[in-house]
Amino acid sequence: MSIWGQFNLQEGMSTIMELLNYFHDYMMTFLILILSFVTYLFAFVILSPRLDKYTVDSHVLETIWTIVPMLILLFMAFPSLYLLYLMEDVSNPSLTVKVVGHQWYWEYQYSNSWFNYSFDSYMVYEKSDAPLFHALDVDNRLVLPTNANILFLITSADVLHSWTVPTLGIKADAIPGRLNYLSTITPYSGVYYGQCSEICGSNHSFMPIVLEFVPMENYLDYVSTVIQSE
């Protein structure tokens, strides 16, 4: 990874996260321009030997610095509202997965008319023979299809948790007695890691999240294997 990559956001691997990255860069452009302009004004006021009347008391200047910030806010607001709308849109999901937080593991439930299956996901310790990421790998990964609109229903069975996968732009609190929701679509196959982001007890740091996205053909093979094994 490059030095710049270590300071920047993680590469977006879902449609929403890619848009969030673009929006971040878009907003940073405005912030840098505003900071540069304000710094120039400070230097101009401090270092200028004399400020004439036009600079100090000008109706034209007052009009400009009233209208320009309003236009900047509009250019910021419309992309932001559009992105918020996309993040809240959960219409026509191809697959629904219920996520239940426990102390200290995750429970996943596939909830569909043609496939109902649930399992627990615990952190795997480094005593295993397989190569592992420290405190990030689990015994049972959540397998999902690519290019599918997936709806996650998130809750908790005991205390507050937070289900978070940064590269997919996923973060939602798991609250007892309440059902939060979010959706994601990713065209990229791969394994994506996350962790509980809410302090939930002594073993809070041992609640990793692993999502494995595979092509639809492989996902159907996985479903067939699960159904046959039951």
Automatic annotation (TrEMBL):
* Mitochondrion in keyword set: yes
Tell me its cofactors. Cu cation
Q: Which residues form a coiled coil?
A: none
The free-text note explaining how the cofactor binds reads: Binds a copper A center.
Reaction catalysed by this chain?
4 Fe(II)-[cytochrome c] + O2 + 8 H(+)(in) = 4 Fe(III)-[cytochrome c] + 2 H2O + 4 H(+)(out)
**Acetylation as UniProt keyword:** no
Q: State its location(s).
A: Mitochondrion inner membrane
**Entry keyword set:** Copper, Electron transport, Magnesium, Membrane, Metal-binding, Mitochondrion, Mitochondrion inner membrane, Respiratory chain, Translocase, Transmembrane, Transmembrane helix, Transport
A cellular-component GO term for this protein: mitochondrial inner membrane
The topology of this chain with respect to the membrane is:
Multi-pass membrane protein
Q: Name one GO molecular function term.
A: oxidoreductase activity
Q: Which residues form the Cytochrome oxidase subunit II transmembrane region profile domain?
A: 1-91
Which PROSITE patterns does the record cross-reference, listed alphabetically? COX2, COX2_CUA, COX2_TM
- SUPFAM superfamilies reported in the protein's UniProt record: Cupredoxins, Cytochrome c oxidase subunit II-like, transmembrane region
Q: Which domain of life is it from?
A: Eukaryota
The signal peptide stretch is: none
Functionally, this protein is described as follows: Component of the cytochrome c oxidase, the last enzyme in the mitochondrial electron transport chain which drives oxidative phosphorylation. The respiratory chain contains 3 multisubunit complexes succinate dehydrogenase (complex II, CII), ubiquinol-cytochrome c oxidoreductase (cytochrome b-c1 complex, complex III, CIII) and cytochrome c oxidase (complex IV, CIV), that cooperate to transfer electrons derived from NADH and succinate to molecular oxygen, creating an electrochemical gradient over the inner membrane that drives transmembrane transport and the ATP synthase.
Q: Cite the NCBIfam families for this sequence.
A: CoxB (TIGR02866)
Name the family the entry cites: Belongs to the cytochrome c oxidase subunit 2 family.
The name on file for this protein is Cytochrome c oxidase subunit 2
Q: Which organism is it from?
A: Brachionus koreanus
Q: Which gene encodes it?
A: COX2
